[in-house]
Amino acid sequence: MENLFGLVDHEDFFSRPCIWVNGPVIVGAGPSGLATAACLRNEGVPFVVLERANCIASLWQKRSYDRLKLHLPKKFCQLPKLPFPQDFPEYPSKKQFIDYLETYARKFEINPLFNECVQCARYDETSGLWRVKSFSSTSRNEVEYICRWLVVATGENAECVVPDIEGLGEFKGDVVHACDYKSGERFNGKKVLVVGCGNSGMEISLDLCNHHASPSMVVRSSVHVLPREIFGLSTFELAFFMLKWLPLWLVDKLLLILTWFILGNIEKYGIKRPPKGPLELKNTKGKTPVLDIGTLEKIRFGHINVVPGIKRFSDRNVELVNGEKIDVDAVVFATGYRSNVPSWLQEGEFFSKNGYPKTPFPHGWKGNSGLYAVGFTKKGLSGSSSDAMNIAKDISKVWKQETKQKKQRTNACHRRCISQF
C-alpha cells in the first residue's frame, strides 16, 4: 500500500510497521539537514527527513535567547542554492535567520516528519539496508524506515551539557541552562552567576547587564576574545583573506596584535589567553574564539564581574576555587552542548564515542555502507553547506545510475512482452 509520502508500507515486514524509503533518510531538520535535503532535491533524489521536534531548526526556534544574531557575516552563513535577502543586515537576527530557513524549506519543498524521535538506527548486513526505528510522539506509534542511505544531521548541539558541581542540588535559587534562557528581563535586579565564557556566556552576561541584573561570569579556563570587526571588516573575513597569502601562525600573531590595539590587555580583567593562537586552537581542538560585541566594555567598567572556577554551591551562595564566597539569586549554565549520536546510532567505525566522525574536516562526511554525517565539522554553517553538497552529489551518482538500470530492465521486459504478444 502506498502512503501519502509516495513510500511503501509493509505492516508485517518486521515486528512493527515498516516504510521503504526510495532514497536517503535524513535525521534532523536543522540547517544541516535542510541543506542536505535541498541539495538532494536539486539532484532529483527523493528523501525523508525525520525531526524529533515539531518545527525546523528547533535549536534556533526553541533553545536560543532572544537577542541572538549570527556571529559571522551573512555570506558565510547562507545555505546552498539560496543566498540571504539583500535587505538583511550583515549579521541577521534570530528571527531573520528563522524566516530565511522557513523560506528555504518552502522553496525546496522540504516537508520533514515532525515529532519523530529516532530511537535506534543500524545497518543490516544481510539485506544491505539501514533500519531506522522512530517513535512518533503524535501517534504514539513506532515505525521502522528502511533505506539505502542514512544521513546523520543531528549536529553538534543536540543535548545541553550541565556540569555536576558539588552542592548544586542544595542551591535554592533559579537554575537554568542557556537553552532555556530567553531574556534578562526576568532577572531584573538579581545577582546572576553565568557559568561559561564562550560566545553564549559572554552574550548572556551582556544581556543580563542591559536588563539591570548584576551578573558574575565564571571564567574557568583560558579563552581567546577577538573583536567582531577590525577596522570595519569582519574579523573572520579578514582572517580568511590573510590565510590565502600567509601561514596560519603568522595570521594568528597579526590577529592578536590587532586585537590588543582594539581591546587592550584583557588578562588584567581575569581573562587569560591560551598559548595557542585562535585559528590554531580552532583547527586542532575545534574551540571557537569569542567575538566581542560589547561585553568587555561592561567588564572594564565593573558592570560584569569576572570570577574563577566554582568549588561548591550552598543554600544561597557559591564558593569559588580561590576561597571567595558570593551571594547569587540565580545560575545560568552557558556550558554548551554535545552530540547525541552514540545514544541511537549503532555503529562504531565512522563515529567516535563522543558522537563526532573520527575523520576530521573536510573528509568526515562519508562513512561506510551508505552512512553520512553533516554538521559535525566545528566550522559552522559553511562547513555544513560543504558537507551537504558533497553528500548529495555522492548519493545522486549511485541513485541515478541504479534508476537508469532499473528503467532499462523495465523497458527490456516490456519489449519482450510485446514481442511475445
TrEMBL record:
Its EC number is 1.-.-.-. Its cofactor is FAD. One of its GO terms (molecular function) is NADP binding. It comes from the Eukaryota. Pathway: Plant hormone metabolism; auxin biosynthesis. The keyword Transmembrane does not apply. GO terms for biological process: auxin biosynthetic process. Keywords: Auxin biosynthesis, FAD, Flavoprotein, Monooxygenase, NADP, Oxidoreductase. InterPro entries: Auxin_biosynth/cation_transpt, FAD/NAD-bd_sf, Flavin_mOase-like. Belongs to the FMO family. This is Flavin-containing monooxygenase.
